[in-house]
Design goal:
It is a single chain. The protein is mostly helical. It folds into two domains: 99 residues, no CATH class; 179 residues, no CATH class. It is built from seven helices and no strands. The protein is globular and about 70 Å long.
């Protein structure tokens, strides 16, 4: 690895951590209806405005040993974890896609997804401004990528590709939610889930959107059953589905083709093990 590559990777990680720092602001303030720009970052306990060197992503928290410099109130470790996770996502996307439009687009998509996942986890809400931004930016992304590859015809194809994903995402979740509500006699899914799926469809297309849903259901089932077994989740306790959809979407964004190939290989192996001959 050359020094130039190390420098570029460092820039990408720094950018990701800085974006993660802003996402912490979005996650905290947006559900409260607060401005994302004013006032500047401050301690939530003593309300003292933080110095620039206290706001350095990850390192600032470590330097302060997880406490406010002024009132010594503990600062949640989730702040540096979000910054570090976002930095890791940015680096992973860059390593996969390099100097392409996909890298810039997926950085934006991943940032919106992380914000939605943690807001949903905290308050069981998927804010309309974020899901709408996700849908519109996803359609724009597909259109621009299509135009870059094939001109006007590619732009039209890209927009249609994204629009089909949006429609499929909304209708699929609405149908599943309706059927689940009939089966359980209570509301099974929130309205924000369909909007999140519409965003995922816009960015990844309807095929990857279906794989996202499968992965989300699989992960959600494991967490739900594990929580029930260990007494952490009550029988009728609602758990947010958004974080699982986000997890599935991020996996599909970065390794969707490999997951699909592995799934097909697993099915073929299972058929052969069962002695079933495929035509």
């Amino acid at each position: 690895m050359s020094w130039a590559e190390i420098f570029i990777y460092g820039l990408v990680v720094s950018l990701g951590a800085s974006v993660g720092s802003f996402l912490n602001v979005v996650i905290y303030r947006l559900p409260e209806g607060l401005s994302l720009l004013h006032p500047p970052s401050r301690c939530p306990q003593c309300h003292t405005q933080l110095k620039p060197y206290d706001n350095v992503p990850v390192l600032g928290w470590l330097w302060l040993r997880g406490k406010c410099r002024y009132c010594h109130t503990p600062i949640s470790s989730r702040y540096p974890l979000v910054e570090a996770a976002t930095a890791g996502l940015f680096l992973g996307i860059f390593l996969l896609f390099g100097y392409q439009l996909q890298t810039l687009g997926y950085w934006l998509c991943a940032s919106i997804l992380v914000s939605l996942a943690l807001i949903d986890w905290d308050v069981m809400l998927l804010p309309n401004p974020l899901t709408q931004l996700g849908v519109l930016s996803g359609l724009t992304f597909q259109t621009v990528v299509g135009w870059h590859q094939q001109g006007v015809a590619g732009a039209a194809q890209g927009f249609i590709f994204g629009a089909l994903g949006v429609i499929a995402g909304i209708w699929l979740i609405d149908v599943i939610g309706f059927l689940a509500t009939l089966a359980f006699g209570r509301v099974a899914m929130g309205g924000g889930d369909s909007k999140l799926m519409a965003m995922i469809g816009a960015w990844l297309g309807w095929k990857q959107m279906l794989l996202t849903l499968f992965l989300a259901c699989f992960a959600g089932s494991i967490v739900g059953l594990g929580g029930r077994v260990f007494g952490k989740i009550g029988r009728f306790q609602a758990i947010p589905f958004g974080p699982f959809l986000v997890l599935g979407a991020l996996l599909c964004m970065m390794a969707g083709a490999q997951i699909w190939t592995g799934y097909q290989a697993g099915i073929l192996w299972l058929y052969r093990w069962m002695g079933i001959e495929l035509g």
